[in-house]
Amino acid sequence: MFGFWRLWLLATILAIGWALLCFALTHDRRYLRRVLAIVRWSAGLLLIVACFWLIFRLLR
């Protein structure tokens, strides 16, 4: 399970870095919106997993 989280974190960092690099090179604001979408999606996924983990811990 830890490998999945490490892979997810690496993919998220690479996607954010790619979008920021593209923004720096082109100054196209669409790339900033992509960064925001990636951050929102990642935070949402983390929140959902944390809620399930907390529920599991409380029921156990």
TrEMBL record:
Keywords: Membrane, Transmembrane, Transmembrane helix. The chain crosses the membrane at residues 6-26, 38-56. This is DUF2768 domain-containing protein. The lineage of its organism: Bacteria, Pseudomonadati, Pseudomonadota, Betaproteobacteria, Neisseriales.
